[in-house]
Specification:
It is a single chain. The chain is mostly helical and 90 residues long. It has one domain. It is 79% helix and 0% strand. The protein is built from 4 helices and no strands. 10% of the residues are buried.
Amino acid sequence: MPYRIALWASAGLVVVGCWQLYFLATAPIPMTTAAPVLWTLARRTCPIAALGSYFHFGVGLDWVLVAKVATYACLGLIVETLRRPLGYAR
């Protein structure tokens, strides 16, 4: 089970790495017709981005990385804990 939780945390690391590369390549963020779709996707995959936009505070990319890895690890812990009683575990 700890191995699977580490995989969830690694998935969070990959997702935040992709977002950082995107924002690095497109800074400042272009206001096009695709921008609302990208912001919605960012809010769904990065909860701290949603909090930052809701409470109107800036978050550094380093803290986004830490928050994202912790969020995905907690999500993995919840999912893996619920998988055991349902009989899907090997």
